[in-house]
Amino acid sequence: MVTFTERAYTVAVETGIYPEDNYRQTIDELISLLQSVDHDMRGEDNYYYLLELLRAMMPSEEQIKRMIA
Asked: Three-state SS for 3?
């Protein structure tokens, strides 16, 4: 589900029992997808917004500590 505020949006994904594993796998798959795209097939696309999304999804050190605890 996606919710919107004045300056942001939040995506909630049902994952089951181990959401941290699902999160990690999702990030890994997105990165693999970007790495596998041939430059010639990309054309002028540079995936700017997708890369910004990935950067925003990466937890801070403090968030990682809370996820593990």
From this structure: strand
With CA atoms as reference, report the closest residue to 56 among 14, 4, 11: 11
The answer to whether residue 23 is domain-embedded is yes
Q: Per the domain annotation, does 6 fall within a domain?
A: no
* pLDDT tens series, the chain, 69 aa: 889 999 998 888 888 787 877 877 887 788 778 777 777 766 677 777 777 788 788 777 787 677 665
pTM: 0.53
Alpha helices in 6-60 (DSSP H): 19-36, 39-42, 48-57
Domain count for the chain: 1
For residue 57, the 8-state DSSP code is: H
CA dist 18 and 40 (Å) reads: 38
The dihedral over CA atoms of 21, 25, 27, 28, expressed in degrees to the nearest 10, equals 140
